[in-house]
Amino acid sequence: MPMTPMAGREGGPAPIRPLLAGYALGSLEPFMHALIESHLILSPKNRDFVRAMEEAAGAEIDGMSVPSMPHAARDEVLGAIYAGSWYGRPRPEKIDPDVPEPLMRLIGRELDDIPWRFYGPGLREHCLHEDEGVTAQLFKVKPGKALPQHTHNGLEVTLVLRGSYGDGVGAYRRGDVAIADESVDHRPVADPREGCVCFAVTEGPVRLTGPVGRLIELVLRR
């Protein structure tokens, strides 16, 4: 009997279940695949559930006549899943212990060596991918600082790599996954002592809310 999947330290079980199933079946897009795989490496919470899903899927496949996949097609699939991997470029000399290898293959450097971009007071951002409605970003937030209040026009999935944060919906530490959609309007705030570094994959644009968001909307309308 598989364990109930968990979204985070205080998150409910339902939001992450489709992502875990998609990971087990190999149907997630590459950046979401890397996020979920990294979560499973950092946290034991959902490993039993995914293992049970994989075993069930394997049993179904064993009873089917499945054509063998040509090497070229197999390599194309692996290349899509591990986009940004070591292929074609040297492996970094140092591997950041805070970053699981699936993410390290995408980032290609330690967190402290990333060319962070200003995102607001106490906030830094590094975009890894932005195309076809999917954005993959790293966020570095100083202790006690907050991201702008926002909601979503799609799914936002966030993995904590360092430190912790809370958003009024849940509290998330290293290895935890937070999931939000258009029903969630939140303002993530980093831990006042240690701050946080997170990896987020967003499907669809983020919509700012609260005083800052309303001010920006007024400016853009002029």
UniProtKB/TrEMBL annotation:
Superkingdom assignment: Bacteria
Ranges that cross the membrane: none
Pfam family, any one: Cupin_7
Domain ChrR-like cupin as annotated: residue spans: 110-202
SUPFAM superfamilies (alphabetical): RmlC-like cupins
The protein's name in its UniProt record: Transcriptional regulator
Source species: Hansschlegelia plantiphila
Top-level taxonomy: Bacteria, Pseudomonadati, Pseudomonadota, Alphaproteobacteria, Hyphomicrobiales
